[in-house]
Amino acid sequence: MSLLKRIKMATIGAPDLDAIKPLYKDWIGYSVISEGVIRDELAASWGTPATGGRPYILMQPESGVDVFIRAIEIDPVPDYKPMTTYGWNAIEIIIDAVDDLHEKLKLSPFTIIGEPRNLGSYKTIRAMQVTGPANEVLYLTCETGDRTQSLLPLPKASVGRPFIMVVAGPDIQKLQQWYATKFQMEKRDIRDSNIDIIQRAQNLPEDHFHQITILRMANHGNILELDGYPTEAKPRVRNDGQLPPGVAMTSVTVEDLDALKLDYIRPPIGGYGSSRTASIVGPAGELLELIEEKM
After folding, report:
1. Within 13 A of 279's CA, how many CA atoms are on the CB side?
2. Phi, then psi, of 169 in degrees rounded to 5
3. What is the value of pTM for the model shown?
4. Domains of the chain, with CATH numbers?
5. For the segment 109-137, what is each residue's pLDDT rounded down to a tens digit?
6. Are 7 and 162 in contact (CB under 8 A)?
7. For residues 250 and 279, what is the distance between their CA atoms, to the nearest angstrom?
8. What Rg, from alpha-carbon coordinates, does the chain have?
9. Packing angle between helix 17-28 and helix 98-105, nearest 10 degrees?
10. What is the pLDDT of residues 138-159, one digit of tens each?
11. N or C: which end of the chain has fewer CB within 10 A?
């Protein structure tokens, strides 16, 4: 069984928190449940000391489930374009009725980059994609078939929780091997996929195929998607000592930080109440925060 249990939090590096807060509340029902400044010790655990003292907001879906989206203030990165660099590239959120949400979001400040459509390899799964004010990409996905038999979780609200985090790198086999080895995750076939939103972002021809695979965590409906990006993509530029722009970090729960024997950026600290946390950098430069969650 995977040593990664479930997605706890997706973090966005955002120049303007005041743009994030009302947008998420009014249009997708995510409410701010906590705000303040990032502790220096926590920022150091991420290897981003300049994040200490920066404002943050923590948002929760209307279902009340304890899976969150956090936005942390960064300085602007003018040349950042989403889905063109390695690292975390998208937050995938479970939706009750994606076509209804699409009609609503047409009137919103979110930018729709992908219209609702069925996924080719999963005939009953339907998805759309948007970008937000921090150039964060959200995949909005619903199950149109038998939800009791689906690999997707139940939404429990019109807009549910993050259930997939998407990471991209230049070598998908290296990405897959790293997660499979470090966290005992079962490898699945790597397949070619025609992903139009990535093609457009990277100015690739319509017949260009990307390699893609998934890794499932221990808890149902918690998944990592691995995307193989071409070598023309680059590591993400960030300001010195700060989080990267866009989708900046994924936080996942584990049973025991000490048992993992990983090369943490800093030794584990008391990060969230009684839960210890430590972070590592993955093979595509992605920042992965691990939070202890005892059985």
Report:
1. 21
2. -150, 170
3. 0.97
4. 6-292 (3.10.180.10)
5. 999 999 999 987 778 999 999 999 999 99
6. yes
7. 10
8. 18
9. 130
10. 999 999 999 999 999 999 999 9
11. C
Residue 217: what residue type?
A: M
Given a cut of 90, whether residue 62 has pLDDT beyond it is yes
Site of tokens 């973090």:
11
- Tokens 């729709």 — which residue? 112
The b/e string for 154-192 (b: 16+ C-beta within 10 A; e otherwise) is bbebbbbbbbbbbbbbbbbeebbebbeebbebeeeebee
Tell me the C-alpha distance between 131 and 93, whole Å: 13
With the C-alpha atoms ordered 244, 32, 157, 147, is the resulting torsion angle positive or negative? Answer: positive
Residue 221 has phi, psi (to 5 degrees) of: 75, 30
CB-side neighbour CA atoms (13 Å) of 149: 5
* Distance of alpha carbon 281 from alpha carbon 286, whole angstroms: 6
Q: What confidence tens digit (pLDDT) does each residue in 229-284 have?
A: 988 899 999 999 999 999 999 999 999 999 998 999 999 999 898 999 999 999 99
Question: Which tokens go with 295?
Answer: 């059985």
Give tens-digit pLDDT for 1-20: 899 999 999 999 999 999 99
